[in-house]
Amino acid sequence: MSELRIRANLSLDDPVTRVRQVSEVRARAFAELGISTVRDLVLYAPFRYIDFTDISTIASCVIGEKCAIVGTIDKVEKRQLRHRRMSIVEASVVDATGAMKAVWFNQPWVADKLESGSAILMQGAIEHYNGFKQISSPIYRILEGDPSSAASLGVQPVYRSRRGLTPSLIAKIVSNAIDDILPSSIDPLSPALRVQNRICSRQVAISNLHRPASMKLVKEAKRRLAYEEMLLLQLHWLIEAKGSDESLNSFAHNVSGEHLDRLFAAIPYELTADQNRAVADILEDMGTSKRMNRLLLGDVGSGKTVVAALALACVSDSGSQGAMMAPTEVLCRQYAKKIGQLFDAIGIRWAMLTSSTTPADRRDIVAGLATGAISVVFGTHAIIEDDIAFNDLTLVVIDEQHRFGVQQREKLRSKGPRSDYLCMTATPIPRSLALTIYGTLECSYIREKPTGERQIETKVVGKRERFIAFDAIREAVSAGQQAYIVCPLIGQIEDGEPEQPEGEELEEEFETLLTEFDIEDIHEDLVAARKEAEYLQTQVFPEFRIGLLCGEMSPREKQEVMESFRNHELDVLVSTTVIEVGVDVPNATVMVIEDAERFGLSQLHQLRGRVGRGDLPGRAILIASTNTPESKMRMESIEKTQDGFELAELDLSLRREGDVVGSRQHGLPSLRFTNVIRDSKMIEKARKDAKAILDADPSLSSDANALLAHELDAVYKRGERA
Length: 722
Ligand code: ADP
Ligand code: MG
Prior knowledge:
It contains 24 helices and 21 strands. By secondary structure, the protein is α/β, with parallel strands linked by helices. The model is unreliable at 1-6, 490-523, 657-666 and 718-722 (pLDDT under 50). Adenosine-5'-diphosphate is lined by residues 269-272, 275, 298, 300-306, 450-451.
């Protein structure tokens, strides 16, 4: 085949081997980067750009900001720290306005590339160290010629590379592909959609993603590609949701019956506005033959249980049955107790079925469910066993659905093919994320808490101010209270030296983990925690009783330690593991978290929720280093806000695009361009556009939608196989 013909025919669906300069060997290297088709290749975004049009001088670069600097290398020094695994390369760099330092940790090979007298471009965050401006582990490029030549380089993409594929080779190959794709065949978005959303064509986007003239054009390109990616995802979700809808209509419940009225009357408090809204959403869904597929989201204590109870009351009014499944027996008992009391008062017949139900009781329950004598069953996965059959199951409620497997969920649903479906979660999932990962579900949020927010006074202190935390513990324990100390997740520290990437001038940003804990020679949680506990016991709190709870201990050991803490046989509990959910020790009032910057904000929020559960107020003291703007911002927000959702959103907004929480677990192709928080408006818009497209053309069979349908197949069929 002549090259000309290949060029004229290159399609996005072609294997990457059809692109010029891609051999089988290189194709295998591309496969390691997740690239197998031309589409994958041209959507492979550079992980960063170097903007040679925007260079700061050493005098003008601002501490705390990310800058690019061009200068001349003066002196290079390589040192090995006495701790055997730490090496430092230090270079001084000068330009016409001054001098600064550049340091690279644990990348000893960098020293060989830096030559005194050559021109260098460096990009990274500017820090302040010993009176000098400093840049740590910057990405860099040695420049041919003198520093003034830099500006002519424009904006350069930098690709993550693999053995056998250097960043510059990737750039060349991507360029080959872009040149050879048929331009007319590649825009699945109609001109109307593009105008409406003010986005560029795909061709322009792809070209500007890889060969931009300015960073502004990169942004435009990514915005277009993010919209496309989200529109496809929303089409995918809506088609999937519709598929299950149409296969069988659901049961239309009586949502204005007697039991419901009596339950409303029996609730001893006023529902909050959010609860009322959620109930209205649910009753509206349940009252029609359209299948309810709803997710109820609310923090622990926001009052989801009573909302579920109201939904369950409708099945009794409809002469059918409901089942509520919880992931643990403890939770199940809690529901049975709370809801069961209300049901007893108004005459709804219910039962609880778990693995510890006695055989005799179980027999009765199995019979009651089969005849319909029991209206509502609360259970663990004991209720999905094969011999459990319902007379007429029309409502399935699943608590913390992600803790069940898909098969378990399906099994429960299969016991009631006409069922409406309500799931509940206390995980703070912002709406835009829910639309992304649970796109077949509609969402109801309960954000306000009925009892008002329990404030945990939170203070962030530097590592050298650890004594403040110790003083707080001393004060609390002396007053007869108890405290937690949560140690860092030692296992997460990167171990050993990173390998030198082959033939690369630009190194990936490398997180410096220069903390006290790295320097101690610790490998395992257990060792670390034992040391910490020992240190605290002997050096800091010799007068207190200190216990240790550690992820690597046996369940029995853990339980014993928790038991003694609960019984106040211990004053301070040192823990390396995230303290078990459900731990409820009302006498614990102080929580100290070491190396707090390593935890996610949601995690910190959940941790601090473990104190102040009794009558006494709780305090959290976070020991953290805040030497990057990001960690500073994160620590300030945990100090200031008590809203779990806000913190979760912030956490998510700090991730890079493509890094959707758990997208892999959810079986989705990863999102390359969308950041679920930053792009939340766009996500809503894409959802709306997808709905409109499907309303007009439910099967995407019109000519106008042919490319869109093709794209959807290409992206999601492959997603299913993966
Ligand atoms: P969740 O299931 O969301 O964790 P619960 O339903 O267990 O929350 O509610 C927590 C507590 O708040 C319960 O004791 C419940 O009785 C109470 N509660 C729920 N809704 C209200 C309300 N509107 N007003 C006052 N108390 C409420
Ligand atoms: Mg609850």
